[in-house]
Amino acid sequence: MQERRIWFSILAIGILFQILAAVFMPLGLDAHVHSTYVSDKIADGDSTLDWGHLRIDGSNQSVAEEIPADDKWFVWHGIIDVWFTIFGISLLSLHILGLIISLSALSVVYFCTKSLWGGQNALALTAILSIYSPLVRSTGRLYQESIVILCATIILYSIVKILRKENNKFWQIICLIFLASILSIKGLPVKYALYLYLPILSLELYRPRYKPVNNITLLAITVVISGIL
Fold first, then answer.
1. Host H or E run for residue 186
2. Is 207 exposed, middle or buried (0-12, 13-18, 19+ CB in 10 A)?
3. pLDDT band at 221 (very low <50, low <70, confident <90, very high)
4. So where are the chain's domains?
């Protein structure tokens, strides 16, 4: 009971951080760029960036020109488009959107973890995630990390369901959809989701049996990962 209260306290502090970030932090450049694409599409039906290139290589490129979205980020822009249509185009609505997405990500993490490994583990993981500084910054500046966490959680949940042989086809479809969503959110070609999906599909053919990792192996893996990072 005492441990549960501690995690609840950390979660409450984390949610407070999210709210304060949404209230006081300025929107990031990415948020302004994507909201401009969306608002321009709402205005004239053509999603373009009238500012020209964001990163210029020389003086000849400093003249403003229309830069089309070319259907990149269609999931991210679709979310912003729906939000603007309902709540209007304003900085306030974007700040609220950032908070809603982050709280939704925390909720998805909690319920997915609770479904797989119980409420205590779900509470602890959600509490730690709520004070994770990149997530707090994502809330305040409307970056994409929050919605990526949401999608990635559903992907991992789907993989566990596939490994447990629970409605495999349904969770494979869900996994593929959210893989494509993450790529779209980051402006990458959605077709790459098929390549990322192949290892997950292979779980139907080969189901690995996991064994406990001894301390020496775990230490070696930690050192290698730390060295790479």
1. none
2. exposed
3. low
4. 2-228
